[in-house]
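EI: anyone free to look at a 309-residue chain?
SC: sure, send it
EI:
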Amino acid sequence: MAQKVVLIADPGIDTAVAIALALYDPQLEVLGIAATAGNISAEEATRNVQIVVDYLDPPRWPRLGEALAVRYDVDGTRLHGPGGLGGIAWPYVGRHRIFPSDKLLVELTAEYPDAITLVCLGPLTVLARALDRDPALARRVRQIVIVGGSWREPGNASAVAEFHFYCDPEAARQVLRCGAPIILVPLDITRQLLLAPAEIAALTDRENRASRFLRRILHYGVGATARLYGIEGFHLKDVLGIGVLACRSAFQTRPMTADVETRGELTRGMLVVDLTPKRAAPNVDLVTEVQVPTVRKYLHRILRRYLCD
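SC: here you go
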């Protein structure tokens, strides 16, 4: 039976690829996608969720949620382009009614209690707002997967903070403390999946609408990565949030006690992991290692199968 998932996403480029994997993987049933600001504004995130689903055109369309603004406005368009999807003004047809994202999370978890995995591919503002609306949501979810935080490496939004947590550290702290089972996939892990230009070309070489869409946004991402960081290729960080569901045995986790710094002048948004034995009960399963070749094979298998149809 397919795993029921709801995505929380701020579609830039890697998030769009992660959404494609989730929508195309028959092991997963995407019931909803709740937009959140992050890489782009709330208005752009709401639009981008519709664009991504429209161009991918999955067999079953999920319910879509309207984004909320994050606490701190951080611009991700240097990497993802103006608008967040390669700097292109994608024409699209809005085919679905859009719900408030926090309301969408509350309603779906009530409709499918103990069955839904929430996969957070952006800042946690929407989920925190949903928990404010209905604290029992934390007891209804099967688990929460969070792509966020940086444990053993520097941050990518500040010296110590990863982008998703930096955008709304108060929301990140609230979610980590909510009591639901959590798998935390930190930047140390997500940085490891880098797609080379030749790999991207091979994956998106078909002339259908979905393939052209992914090819064009990834081409922009490759150029921006080279220009900004001197790296050849593009990191698919958010794909690891889907990979941990589809390729669970490729991910090694460790029960840990984790929190987020919310007040530090230099450390706002920093993931704090307590390594002291038995000081506090673990609240996350922290991913400490990943078999990248396994996730890469999964990515190729799903995209080649569905983009070639």
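EI: The first strand starts at residue 3 and ends at 9.
SC: 👍
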